[in-house]
Design a protein that fits this description.
There is one protein chain. The chain is mostly helical and about 500 residues long. It contains 33 helices and no strands.
Length: about 500
């Protein structure tokens, strides 16, 4: 979507240079915006080179008469188009002196064809009052294209002097036509206090497509600031934005914006009625997976309901193994395990097992990062079910990682294990710890508030596990050992139960 709107802007600017109706250039609409701009610059440069000598002669002559007289000659004989062409050929201080004697209306006419690239020094010297007068004239005409052309080139002081003459909706229109995309951040910084009004005016005027185009120009920092301001608006405005994004197919723009939101605004976005639509969520997930926006989707995923997550996970599950591996690698590189785990757990049982079987999930660095993120964000209820799906070859790495957990982090895992139905796997991992670490783990388990629930969910009938527990019975605290013995009997291992209680 944004590429289409940027193309529309570039065609309007090219039409201005060629003095044609934009509709006459519709045959160029399939070209990229960058190509159209390069073509426009080539035309402007060619025209300037062709007129360079003549402009230099006229500029030299302008030095010979007082500024007020030069202004009269400029207005009466040259006209605004020639005056704009002369701007780069006259000493900047002299040009400003002449311009100060010209009417705002004439100056506004001259800016229509002014090439900011050739008048950098002149623009920098324009006094604030003069800039404000010209801006006011251009805005009153609704000539946002010219304002956008100049806004990226003038100093901040000039913008601050000019923008009070613009309404909130005017600011949006100027931003839409910015000549330099890097100027979008600067413009937003200057009008920070007016952003809520601009958003409201955008909604009331039905101009969301232009606002979405402007969003795409912003850098990550300003985008995040604006995203939070948008999310703070009332439900009507947020729903209007979502509807517009869907209408013009601009999720490729909104997803990166949403990713920069603070948690509370992002949660509010996730809870809007439109976001409950499975078809829409599948479309968003598909876009993220096919347009390299996976890392922009993950922050949103952490705020989705279980039903929403299942929809997103179902689309993720359609990816082949090599693609899933790439997605995991990308998430790991950006430390996105806290946002990846909820999606992984929302997969169906077969798909979750397929994910856990991928070699990438068995890399020690990845397992360690996943456990560390789980502990830091207390995601044990979400993450522990994955333990059951990992092969036993990963247990040594898991055991070493668990060693590094604090007592509170380990107890949090123990507390979540029964509900996650992974008590047996947790015991298997603990059995792979060295003596010192295992003694600590067993002591902490013995002190856990949910000890009976934990042991009650160890339902394995595998004699090897009960034998391994019997072999370390001297390390197991008495209460824990007694409960394990009773559970071994329940699991059909009376002989090993006796061994557990033997001296």
């Amino acid at each position: 979507m944004t590429a289409t709107h940027h193309t529309t802007v570039e065609l309007a600017k090219l039409a201005r240079v060629l003095d044609r109706d934009p509709a006459d250039l519709d045959f160029l609409a399939t070209l990229l915006p960058a190509a159209l701009r390069e073509f426009r610059d080539q035309i402007t440069d060619l025209t300037a080179r062709r007129e360079a000598r003549r402009m230099q002669r006229v500029g030299a002559a302008a030095k010979l008469v007082p500024a007020p007289i030069a202004a009269k000659i400029t207005e009466a004989a040259f006209g605004p188009v020639l005056a704009a062409a002369l701007a780069g050929s006259v000493d900047p201080a002299r040009a400003v002196a002449i311009a100060s004697a010209l009417s705002p209306s004439f100056l506004a006419d001259a800016t229509l064809t002014l090439d900011p690239r050739r008048a950098v020094e002149l623009i920098a010297r324009v006094p604030g009052p003069m800039a404000a007068a010209v801006a006011s004239e251009l805005i009153s005409r609704g000539d946002y294209l010219t304002m956008g052309n100049l806004a990226g080139s003038v100093p901040d002081s000039v913008l601050r002097a000019a923008l009070p003459h613009a309404s909130d909706l005017d600011i949006l229109q100027v931003g839409y036509y910015l000549e330099e995309t890097s100027a979008a951040d600067r413009l937003l910084t200057i009008v920070t206090d007016r952003v809520p009004g601009v958003i409201r005016a955008t909604h009331d005027a039905g101009e969301w497509p232009k606002a979405i185009t402007l969003l795409a120009l912003l850098g990550p920092t300003e985008r995040s600031k604006l995203a939070d301001v948008v999310a703070a608006q009332d439900d009507e405005v947020i729903d209007g934005l979502i509807a517009a994004v869907e209408e013009v197919d601009a999720w490729d723009t909104l997803l990166p914006v949403a990713a920069g939101m603070s948690p509370q605004p992002l949660q509010r976005l996730a809870q809007r009625p439109a976001m409950q639509n499975p078809t829409l969520l599948t479309k968003i997930a598909d876009l993220a997976l096919t347009q390299n926006l996976w890392l922009s989707l993950l922050p949103l995923a952490t705020h989705l309901s279980p039903t929403q997550l299942h929809t997103v996970a179902a689309r993720v599950a359609t990816e082949p193994d090599d693609s899933l591996t790439t997605l995991i690698e990308q998430a790991h590189a950006e430390n996105h395990w806290p946002t990846l785990l909820p999606v992984a757990l929302a997969l169906s049982t077969p798909d979750r097992k397929r994910l856990a079987s991928l070699p990438v999930m068995h890399r020690p660095a990845y397992l360690t990062a996943a456990i560390e993120a789980t502990a830091t964000h207390n995601l044990w209820p979400e993450a522990l079910p994955l333990l059951n799906d990992l092969p036993t070859t990963t247990h040594d790495t898991l055991a070493a990682t668990i060693n590094a957990l604090t007592d509170n982090e380990f107890l949090a895992a123990v507390q979540a294990a029964p509900a996650a139905d992974c008590s047996t796997t947790l015991i298997q991992v603990l059995l792979r710890q060295d003596f010192s670490a295992r003694s600590r783990s067993l002591t902490l388990i013995d002190e856990a508030d949910n000890l009976e629930a934990l042991i009650g969910t160890i339902t394995t009938q595998d004699p090897a596990i009960w034998q391994a527990l019997s072999d370390i019975r001297s390390e197991i605290p008495e209460r824990l050992r007694s409960l394990l013995a009773a559970q071994a009997t329940q699991c059909g291992q009376p002989g090993l139960a006796d061994n557990l209680t033997a001296s």
